[in-house]
Amino acid sequence: MTARDAGRPTVTSRVLDILEAFSAERTALTITQISRRAGLPLSTAHRLVGELACWGALERDAGGGYRVGLRLWEVAALAPRGPALREAAMPFLEDLYEATHENVHLAVLDGLEVVYIERISARAAVHVFSRVGGRWPAHATGVGLALLAHADTDLQERAITGPLRRFTGRTIATGPELRRVLAEVRRTGVAISDGQVETFALSVGAPVYGPDDTVVAAVAIVVPTPGWEARALVPVVRASARGISRALGAPRALRSPETALHNR
Amino acid sequence: MTARDAGRPTVTSRVLDILEAFSAERTALTITQISRRAGLPLSTAHRLVGELACWGALERDAGGGYRVGLRLWEVAALAPRGPALREAAMPFLEDLYEATHENVHLAVLDGLEVVYIERISARAAVHVFSRVGGRWPAHATGVGLALLAHADTDLQERAITGPLRRFTGRTIATGPELRRVLAEVRRTGVAISDGQVETFALSVGAPVYGPDDTVVAAVAIVVPTPGWEARALVPVVRASARGISRALGAPRALRSPETALHNR
DNA sequence: GGCGTTCCTTCCGTTGGACGGAAGCGGTGT
DNA sequence: ACACCGCTTCCGTCCAACGGAAGGAACGCC
């Protein structure tokens, strides 16, 4: 599947390997470090990094090291599933934050993981595991369950049959359990992850629909668990998701307000 | 200077040309469009785009077109001058927004242009020209003047001697005038752009200092001009800039609060 | 001061991957 | 049915990418 599956390194794959060498822990690297992490000969890394830096995809810092450059960020700011989505959702996320003063998440699905597009956190909030641009297994979090429940059937099957990483004693750990939870999420329209990532945290998530009426993202709110009831958060999260869907132009969000979906 | 100055197209430069083919107006392109915009033969574009899409730098949408991918955005989220800066500044920007409910900008300097890192806008705000990830000439805006005034001397000279694009009758249009304004900005610590981009808008900007006590960014607030006085905004903007500088670990921001810099 | 280490940069002969014209394919409009 | 447009695949040519090697600069240790 990958371009370098046959051990045939192309120039493009090397360039991408260089970008991949950077991580949240290592945002600044020397050429030598890049060459090691990307598995490239020093002279090759030197040449490619030079070209990338010249264009602005990488930048040199004061010490001579390289960092991800502004120019790359400018291009990335055009990603529809990233900043463009964030832009539309921001007002609603701020409302959600104002209503609770807890952690608010906006994420999309990529494979079996969620990628956090935006995060608003309480100043002195509970320990936050998420990071904008960061990833997390979908089966554990509120946003992840909301996204997975509305994903392609074969993707769901891959999640159900695949290994499920365990974070706490309450993390969903078996396929049948995940299948049951996903069905429940589809029935109620919201996903609740109670103590499945951290024992003392609770997350309520809801799917966000795009113009073609498919689920494109999910919002969630994460709160400390003694002190909040999941039931109390369901209406605001659902309303926020509807608002974002409407802003994105989802037909579904324009229809009858909360009748068919509302159970009980 | 450029890698392709000698008309020697390298693979890396072609890959970057492909990324460059995307713009704010055209966020989705077909292979044919990419090949035209990047000036590449179709088969070459096809091969390179395929590799980029395989890695995740580009993504296919429902219609078969290509968009900037999430994976690229993840890497770009590591840029110190982008998201990392934004993260530290966000609480202060929100305070600034709460205090005025007008447009708040955070930007950095790249050449003679500013690049907007973050923007908070009033829901039904005045017409907004800026865009996150967008560029604007530095000599006209509040953020731009604040940044330029503290930039390298030779960069300032390039701005002063270079052509100055005019937006309104009040846009700074001559070198000597710009030189005078920049000196004024350094003296007062704030930059005021009154009607220099749009006739009925006023902007007050202040520099943000990094750990090494150099100016790394600028904050500004943009308000409609009949209804606001620049003088009234100076304290909040300055306080916000100081707050962000402190959050970034600037020694300067820890020193005596507002004595030496405060004039009158 | 001498020496080892580490990292950056440049050079250049070899070679294998990038190149792109051409042809085939599928969809759409007239 | 034909023309058009865009996507995809193929394959022989050739030149740009490759990377080992050597030189150079900066730092730290004995």
Automatic annotation (TrEMBL), chains A, B:
- Extract the coiled-coil ranges from the record: none
Identify the InterPro entries for this entry: GAF-like_dom_sf, HTH_MetabolicPath_Reg, Tscrpt_reg_IclR_C, Tscrpt_reg_IclR_N, WH-like_DNA-bd_sf, WH_DNA-bd_sf
Pfam families per record: HTH_IclR, IclR_C
Q: Where is the IclR-ED domain?
A: 71-250
For this UniProt record, give its keywords in alphabetical order, as a comma-separated list. Answer: DNA-binding, Glycerol metabolism, Transcription, Transcription regulation
Q: Which Gene3D superfamilies match?
A: 3.30.450.40, Winged helix-like DNA-binding domain superfamily/Winged helix DNA-binding domain
Say yes or no: keyword DNA-binding present: yes
SUPFAM superfamilies from the UniProt entry: GAF domain-like, Winged helix' DNA-binding domain
Domain HTH iclR-type, first and last residues per copy: 9-70
Out of the domains of life, which is the source?
Answer: Bacteria
Gene Ontology biological-process entries = glycerol metabolic process; negative regulation of DNA-templated transcription
| Keyword Transcription regulation carried by entry | yes
Query: What is this protein for, i.e. what is its function?
Result: May be an activator protein for the gylABX operon.
**What is this protein called in UniProt?**
Glycerol operon regulatory protein
Originating species: Actinomadura darangshiensis
